[in-house]
Amino acid sequence: MDFSLADILAARAAIRGHADDTPFIPSPFMEARTGHAFLLKLENTQPIGAFKLRGALNAVMSLPADCAGVICCSTGNHGRGVAYAAAQRGIRAVVCMSELVPQAKVDGIRALGAEVRIGGRSQDAAWAESRRLAEAEALVEISPFDDPAVIAGQGTIGFEMMAARPDLHTVLVPLSGGGLAAGVAVAVKSVNPRVRVVGVSMDRGAAMHASIAAGRPVEIEEVPSLADSLGGGIGLDNRYTFALCRDHLDDIVLVSEEEVYHAMQVLYYEDRIVAEGACVVGLAAILSGKVAAGGATGTIVTGRNLDMGVFTRIMCGEDVDLGDRIVKGRPYGA
Length: 334
Fold this sequence. Notes:
Layout: H1 5-15, E1 24-26, H2 28-34, E2 38-42, H3 52-61, E3 69-73, H4 77-89, E4 92-97, H5 103-111, E5 115-118, H6 123-136, E6 140-141, H7 148-164, E7 170-174, H8 179-191, E8 196-202, H9 207-214, H10 241-248, E9 251-255, H11 257-271, H12 281-287, E10 297-301, H13 308-315, E11 320-321, E12 326-327
Parallel strand pairs: 2-10, 3-4, 3-6, 4-5, 7-8, 7-10, 8-9
Antiparallel strand pairs: 1-2, 11-12
């Protein structure tokens, strides 16, 4: 794929004033823990509460004037971004989601004016329905990750991080379909190729990790996770993100549900930040010892759109039922 920093800078210009320049703040607790500067890129402060707004806006705003509507599949935040961007243009938006997506995320998308279609037990099933409806109803499909405009929009995060802190040694990026990780990795390494970029995902159902290990896109079984935003496959016909992640990520590490649980507590109790499980996988990688900070480190707090009932149970140290397993809780600091 011919994808470069120029595409990311063009996206930066396109979304300027709508979804850019989120805070990049220090975490004193993590700095004390690692012995190095540790910074949090607060994408949870976006108007829709998640980084996905960047890529969705760049993609939707680049469509021709006669576009009647858009459609996508989503685990939640991409759907919010597409719904928000479509509303800005005054066009129809349809979002296809699997039965595994938390109800809070479904409700949030509907509140933004989009139509929601729910069916199947996987993101791949939602994707198949999105493609069917796109053809049947003449809608433009916007991939949650495998789209150059989406990748470029997400890449603006990495450019902002490097502009604010050119001394970064390591960037930890939540990894799912790869739109965020690919865009951020290209941006960061275009500015400074020596910066280490590490993709982090949960240890059950990590599609990009399994695909890179296999040398080709593969299907994975989706299971409920505290990091539900990282669920879903990368598509067997993946055109962009597989190669970009394979070529630009220095490493991929996986964290357990228990490690995500603990990292959510750390981010809340130490930094007073409410965030999804997917947001804290970078912290979890450091706290578990799976990644060592060799210098100034940055990670992305990707979103805040979570089930507050589950979040409250985690903060109280209670067990969390994921359907196929129980994540044993413990009070923070105990």
